[in-house]
């Protein structure tokens, strides 16, 4: 049984953390946090103050937009570091700095939680979890905390949901969600809505049966669990001729929420194992969006982006809730740039989810058409991986985009998509039996192939879409790099994003895509950026810390075309916080 260590427990630290950063020395700072912490109510989650970033994408609609505008297109050149903080951990730092009235919370791989003074960078407290020694981590990352009341919640890689006192970092409860020894793990930030703390689990490459589970924030008791693969007798079960028990549909990115409909929208992962002919049928609800009522976990709607997935195209990114003007009316839309390379627009309602449109945003050679009524794609069967064959297809198995979230600015009405163009992949299907806790791919991981399309002039591409007209209005291309950068839009008409193998973090003009500012960081930036204000100063915050599949794609690219793409991206996590030059901390007097 894994045990956890609170800030004062002084327990055994995970191996990659230097001894100088062990917990137990921060008590006076924790008292500061105690005095200042403002409780996070449902009301505040629904309508957060502009100065705060209280959840994964700031607002329930998942737009990743901060209304703050002190930093804008006229002065962004004056952005300089206000402070930075080294986490002492390697691998993928992806969590947004979540900020509640001057207190910042970040997580690192291994589910470490760090609380910092958002103005000064002072360490308030640090929580580390003692992980079991036999734990292997296929995706070593953690995507952040959820706040509620005076608690925070973190989902751990050994599959526990942990509640901490947000003021002190003391553990209040830790509930086992699933068994890590059977290939279950968690990487997402929990979602708090309708009085429940919701999490989903990873494990699509291990043949898990995906689920979303709702927990009582006070007691930690599970209120409900809804499987993303319907069991016998449940609607959708007929889409599985076999293999539903190990069918995938994992959940590893935070859902979004519509308070008016009281529905949470979750994206679901790839079907398992990878080769579709090993599990004939559409395989609901894999590679779908699923609408759940947070009170009881009941499914109230779904839309499957592509059926019988065979490309590892997880559609886990939850769709953005956007009011889209189209054909003379306002559509309460769900907008999703899919891993399958199509930009989807759906309409949400109490009755369910209705297809509106789907258009490719990168080169895609698999779909031969989209049914205009249902949105169901038809396939070029020669591009569909299968058992006992090698099949190539575009985009690669990492898709038109992987997990890094897109953002939407209600001011410019543009959707910003961090895409990877001009990449193709190949998979070789092999027969494989399911063994609990072992990879269940029906493909050799060493046989995953990545290639750059002949004549390609770039890979990474930040795209801006006018979603009213399904039109790409600008794009910024990265010649020598893939793009794994979560995007943030701001009220200053700026778009912030890192994600390239040259370690830059950049600001773009939201209207035309010009790079207005860039700064070189310690590592590659795959962290979700956030923005907040303390004492009248706006800050931009992001973690730099390359790893996981951004690194795997880097290795594959360097292998495919070393002359163009070989680049060492150093690892190691650092929180970076930027503010306008005249507003950073006071400098010592010159003598
Ligand atoms: O099927 C799954 O359960 C699952 C989980 C995760 C994860 O938890 O991060 C990834 C993937 N799949 C995946 O397919 C993928 O490309 C991926 C990239 C990353 C990353 O952090 O860079 N995680 C994951
Ligand atoms: Ca997957």
Automatic annotation (TrEMBL):
Instruction: Give yes or no: UniProt keyword RNA-binding.
Output: no
- Named cofactor requirement(s): pyrroloquinoline quinone
SMART domains found in the cross-reference section: PQQ
- Cell inner membrane among the record's keywords? no
Query: InterPro entries attached here?
Result: ADHI (IPR034119), PQQ_b-propeller_rpt (IPR018391), PQQ_MeOH/EtOH_DH (IPR017512), PQQ_rpt_dom (IPR002372), Quinoprotein_ADH-like_sf (IPR011047)
Q: Pyrrolo-quinoline quinone repeat domain location, by residue?
A: 53-348, 478-540
Q: Where are the compositionally biased (Basic and acidic residues) regions?
A: 31-49
Annotated region Disordered: the residues are 1-50
Keyword set, alphabetical order: Metal-binding, Oxidoreductase, PQQ, Signal
Entry's family note: Belongs to the bacterial PQQ dehydrogenase family.
The name on file for this protein is Methanol/ethanol family PQQ-dependent dehydrogenase
Tell me which species this is from: Craurococcus roseus
């Amino acid at each position: 049984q894994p045990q956890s260590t609170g800030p004062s427990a002084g327990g055994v630290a995970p191996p990659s953390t230097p001894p100088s950063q062990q917990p137990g020395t921060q008590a006076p700072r924790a008292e500061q946090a105690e005095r200042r912490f403002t409780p996070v109510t449902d009301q505040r989650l629904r309508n957060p103050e502009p100065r705060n970033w209280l959840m994964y994408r700031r607002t329930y609609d998942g737009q990743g937009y901060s209304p703050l505008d002190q930093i804008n297109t006229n002065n962004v050149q004056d952005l300089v570091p206000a402070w930075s903080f080294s986490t002492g951990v390697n691998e993928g730092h992806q969590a947004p700095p979540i900020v509640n009235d001057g207190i910042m919370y970040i997580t690192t791989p291994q589910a470490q939680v760090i609380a910092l003074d958002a103005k000064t960078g002072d360490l308030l407290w640090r929580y580390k979890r003692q992980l079991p020694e036999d734990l292997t981590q296929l995706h070593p990352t953690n995507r952040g905390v959820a706040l509620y009341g005076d608690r925070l919640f973190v989902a751990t890689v050994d599959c526990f949901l942990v509640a901490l006192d947000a003021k002190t970092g003391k553990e209040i409860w830790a509930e086992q969600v699933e068994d890590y020894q059977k290939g279950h793990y968690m990487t997402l930030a929990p979602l708090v809505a309708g009085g429940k703390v919701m999490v989903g689990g990873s494990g699509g490459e291990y043949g898990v049966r995906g689920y979303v589970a709702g927990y009582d924030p006070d007691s930690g008791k599970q209120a409900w669990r809804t499987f993303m693969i319907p069991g016998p007798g449940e609607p959708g079960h007929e889409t599985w001729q076999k293999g539903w028990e190990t069918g995938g549909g994992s959940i590893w990115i935070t859902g979004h929420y519509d308070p008016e409909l009281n529905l949470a929208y979750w994206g679901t992962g790839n079907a398992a194992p990878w080769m579709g002919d090993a599990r004939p049928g559409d395989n609901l609800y894999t590679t779908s969006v699923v609408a759940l009522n947070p009170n009881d976990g009941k499914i109230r709607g779904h839309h499957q982006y592509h059926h019988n997935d065979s490309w590892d195209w997880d559609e886990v990114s939850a769709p953005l809730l956007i009011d889209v003007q189209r054909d003379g009316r306002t559509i309460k839309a769900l907008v999703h740039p899919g891993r399958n390379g199509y930009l989807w627009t759906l309409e949400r309602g109490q009755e369910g989810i209705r297809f509106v449109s789907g258009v490719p945003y990168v080169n895609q050679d698999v779909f031969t058409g989209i049914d205009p009524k249902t949105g169901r794609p038809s396939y070029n069967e020669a591009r569909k991986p299968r058992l006992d064959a090698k099949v190539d297809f575009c985009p690669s198995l990492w898709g038109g985009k992987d997990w890094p979230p897109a953002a939407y600015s209600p001011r410019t009405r543009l959707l910003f998509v961090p895409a990877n163009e001009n990449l193709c992949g190949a998979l070789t299907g092999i027969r494989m039996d399911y063994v609990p806790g072992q990879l269940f791919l029906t493909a050799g991981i060493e046989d995953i192939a990545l290639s750059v399309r002949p004549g390609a002039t770039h890979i990474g591409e930040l795209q801006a879409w006018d979603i009213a007209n399904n039109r790409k209005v600008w794009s910024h291309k990265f010649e020598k790099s893939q793009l794994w950068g979560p995007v943030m839009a701001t009220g200053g008409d700026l778009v912030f994003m890192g994600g390239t193998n040259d370690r830059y973090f950049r600001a773009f003009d939201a209207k035309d895509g010009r790079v207005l500012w860039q700064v070189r960081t310690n590592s590659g930036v795959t962290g979700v950026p956030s923005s907040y204000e303390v004492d009248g100063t706006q800050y931009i915050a992001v973690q730099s810390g390359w790893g996981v599949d951004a690194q795997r794609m880097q290795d594959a690219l360097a292998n495919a075309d070393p002359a163009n793409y070989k680049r060492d991206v150093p690892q190691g996590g650092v929180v970076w916080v930027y503010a306008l030059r005249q507003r950073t901390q006071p400098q010592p007097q010159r003598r």
